[in-house]
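The instructor's notes for this session suggest beginning with a concrete chain rather than abstract definitions. Hand out the sequence below and ask the class to guess, before any prediction is shown, which regions might be ordered.
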Amino acid sequence: MKVACVTLGCRTNQHDTAEMQTLLEQEGFSIVNGKDKADAYVINTCTVTQRSDYSSRLAVKKSLAINPDALVVFTGCYAQLNPQEASKLNGLDIVLGNADKLEIANLIKMKLLNPRQSWVKNAGTEIIMSDIHKKRVFRTIPVNNFQGMTKAFIKIQTGCDEKCSFCTVVKARGKSVSDTRENIIHNIQQAIASDFKEITLTGINLGTWGMDRNETFSSLVRDIVEIPGNFRVRLSSINPMEIDKDLIRLIAETEKLCSHLHIPLQSGDDTTLKSMRRNYNRNQYLEVTQRAIDIIPRLGLGADVIVGFPGETEEAFEKTRNLIEQLPFSYLHVFPYSSRRGTEAHQIKDDVPGNIKKQRSQILTKLVGQKSLKIRERFLGQRETVLIENQRDKNSGWLKGHTGNFIPVTLEGADSLKNSLAPVTLKEVSGHQVIGCVQ
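After discussion, reveal the predicted structure:
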């Protein structure tokens, strides 16, 4: 039988989907693309914004449009936070909690391959939801397939103990819990043996790995880069207060570790940061990022920013714009504030009009576009290592990939270059990409 998985949201969700696919394959199911006809569809949802909620619901409709008789499972953070609401979606059969994802294969097998009881479509929606907040052991399995990707996402931590006023993650993922160092090393070795050339460490609050074990994240990274093999390591989003001097020094001195940091900012205004309940202020953010810029050659820097948070005045927004102007960001993820039920900020009046949010978002997007162009031009004529992806660029048909410092590159070349770490000279800036050639 065929199962299709559709993933929305973060890299941790991508890893969770890969785990579920692995378990399904072990039980004899065939994994197909989400656009193909399948006997079952697993929708791994996101609920960061209202748009994420809409996209998650839409994925159910799209799946049923392909096969109205399919079993549809709704899991992930939307399912975890709003199981009753989700259960009312037309055609949905199962709502599965985040803590129960590793039961997916047994669950679908029981529904579709049970000789004692035939499954009937539209017999009601079943909610399977363990308590995400009770003390639990970190659970993960080795994964050897990430939906055709050349990068392996290795989940080393989940949950979060922070209390940001706008965020639903604590309720959706529970308290922070870390995988063991030994299991992480094992999972990475398995990924390398499966010929993945880039290992991305991921987690809900990545830099807090080990705090529940009296270990440090930077010490784990040091052990990972010492694993033999032809691969490189990339860090996913990491909060500023979890970036210690040892980690910065490791990135600067270790060729296997990508010179790339994604450090969430959210706001450059202290009053807004305090209202958001972030655990740093403007000066602390500047101090950490400037230290990284000074020490790490060729650093690629990215961030998340929220515009239009309740109470964000024009002056507060200008402080954010000014901070972004000061730092060499090569990209930003800019989000207009979206009120989320169940958060502290939901109780605050959303007093920034939608047109102002849109305008502020456009200002920051234009600003970082200009900064990004200058950064890419600075690297022209230089040789960088690019991970060549399995899929070609849709527009040009050329090969595509990213440098270690996360510059997107396209280049002419044969399919034999796919899934390789290739030396590429950056020749020309074109739109949002850089054109390169293999040397």
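Then share the key points. The chain has a mean pLDDT of 94. DSSP finds 13 helices and 18 strands in the chain.
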